[in-house]
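Supplementary Methods S3. Input chains for the assembly prediction are listed below.
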Amino acid sequence: MAEQSNIEWTDHTFNPWEGCQRVAPECDHCYAEVRDQRFNGGNHWGPKAPRRRTGIANWNKPLRWNKQARAFAAQHGRRQRVFCASLADVFDNAVDPQWRADLWALIRSCDRLDWLLLTKRPQNIAAMLPDDWGSGWPNVWLGTSAGTQKTAETNIPHLLAIPAAVHFVSAEPLLEKVQLNALKIKGNITLDALRGEAQEDLTGKPVPAPISRLDWVICGGESGAKARPMHPDWARSLRDQCTAAGTLFFFKQWGNWIAEIDRDRDDPDWRADYSKTKRDEWAILNADGGIGFHGDRVHLMKRAAKKVAGRTLDGREWSEVPA
Ligand code: SF4
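Predicted structure tokens for the full assembly:
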């Protein structure tokens, strides 16, 4: 019954509208923007571009999934997850507020579905919630992106300030090592987002703890023709941070690059292998994100089809999801 989405952590994808604007480095190769150029004239991206509301037939899909809730639960032993939205941003301030009001009404009426709202604009969430949000609707999970340390430090404090049934982060595409357990936020305050603890600043004044902690972290590499490689140690670091804090971890994909040679552990003659191959099929990547032979933990990354690259990390899949 999970017929609608190829995204590994959801059952369905629902787009109430399409169109957006790039707001972070993670947006650089936005799949949705490319798709808009290909199928919808490419007029729906940018600050002044009109967004395109999807049709009634599309808006009726969640109602149908909601009706199928009992059968789905009998088959899978859990509720259906709906990712909203993959081709837009629910908290985009260029969207007609009436569209978002209609979306909240739909979410309210489909209360047997778990709605996953993932945004790159968490600073807008508070002003765009429905009046009866209270301590969070039980069927709505709120998430934000954290593919770089800067994005994590900008986005996560906004997310954790809002009550929600589940708080999650999508570190995809993961573009560098990200310390979710040591976010530098205002002044000298350090926030451990995985434990929901803020440390005292250097003046010794106690800092208020965030009201929440992250329940779930999704991690993945980039796919597409211009995909950037993900160093394996970045993914390992997120996994290890989550494991230490008891946070659920989902490794979604390597994307279009895989680690071919780990210089510290594999063939010492790897430079010779590299020199024989086409340059655009390989990248030399160190743990700091630098491309080149120098630096720590240098890896030879190789282009690969997404399916070939797969989604195992150190020999196993990581598919933890909140219940
Ligand atoms: S926020 Fe999402 S949909 Fe919007 S440009 Fe960035 S990646 Fe694309």
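The first strand starts at residue 12 and ends at 13. The CA atoms of residues 135 and 254 lie 36 Å apart.
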